[in-house]
């Protein structure tokens, strides 16, 4: 299939595009900036993804260049992964600006996409959104970022139906792995390799955590199923669903022997819950059918952390 992919500079996008291209799909990725304008780990990801697929720089979803790109060829699938997500937990997050950027000219985009042979659209969703995962009630958006993503989905669902396109959605859990913008797992590994004791500040939240290599395989499987059958409309992949504290113990158990260091942990006494205490996905994955090896994934992640932190 010919796939147009937005948000190509992101951590998850690199691994997803890698999985799609290795399966024989032809991917074209768009970048908001020129490759040389990226810095740090994002620049490294852009260099890596540029070796996997055609890159079209200087394009944002819905702008004139994007519309011209849609019209320039026939596409089977549009994977809309790009979204404004700077400081998503901030109470000052510009949800309206994010929604505008996520959905700019969505009606025109989908109309032209359909006109030029488009079949399906897959939207990236988040457990921060309203009514997308299970857990603590009410199932409201966790924050303003979640609100922007909730509204983004409704825009695409509406206009997709209007022009007769299949619109699917994959709701991401917390994701970790190589080439990430460091979060919990990277913080833990860096602390241990520096012989420090990391503090887990939100140990009582119950969340999904998933290695990005597993998520990429799940995404490819969902894309292929959805484009051929039209269902399911939403896919909620789940793995390592537990309290954040228990997940930290799991990371210590897996990485300790591989990093050859002690992995102590300190837990903050969490008494405030500005986000829902429980928010997890529901679709368990058949890792064997997906061709994913858990032990090898931890091996590769440990090698990566030893390379960048030791």
Q: Can you offer a commentary on this structure?
A:
With 310 residues, this protein is α/β, with parallel strands linked by helices. Helix 3 packs parallel to helix 5 and helix 9 crosses helix 11. The protein is globular.
Q: Which class of secondary structure composition applies to the elements? A: alpha/beta
**Mean of pLDDT:** 97
* Poorly predicted spans: none
Radius of gyration: 19 Å
| CATH C-level of the largest domain | Alpha Beta
Query: How much strand?
Result: 15-25%
Number of domains: 2
Order of helices and strands: EHEHEHEHHEEHEEHEEEHEEEHEEEHH
Categorize the overall geometry: globular
Report the strand count: 17
CATH architecture classification name of the largest domain: 3-Layer(aba) Sandwich
For this entry, give a set of tags.
globular, alpha/beta, UDP-galactose 4-epimerase, domain 1, 310 residues
Secondary structure layout:
Layout: E1 2-5, H1 11-22, E2 26-30, H2 40-50, E3 54-56, H3 64-72, E4 77-80, H4 95-103, H5 106-115, E5 120-126, E6 134-135, H6 144-163, E7 166-172, E8 174-176, H7 184-193, E9 199-200, E10 206-207, E11 209-211, H8 212-229, E12 234-235, E13 237-238, E14 242-243, H9 244-259, E15 266-267, E16 278-280, E17 283-284, H10 287-290, H11 294-309
Parallel strand pairs: 1-2, 1-4, 2-3, 4-5, 5-7, 7-12, 8-11, 9-15, 10-16, 13-17
Antiparallel strand pairs: 6-16, 10-14
Helix pairs in contact: 1-2, 1-8, 3-5, 4-6, 5-6, 7-9, 7-11, 9-11
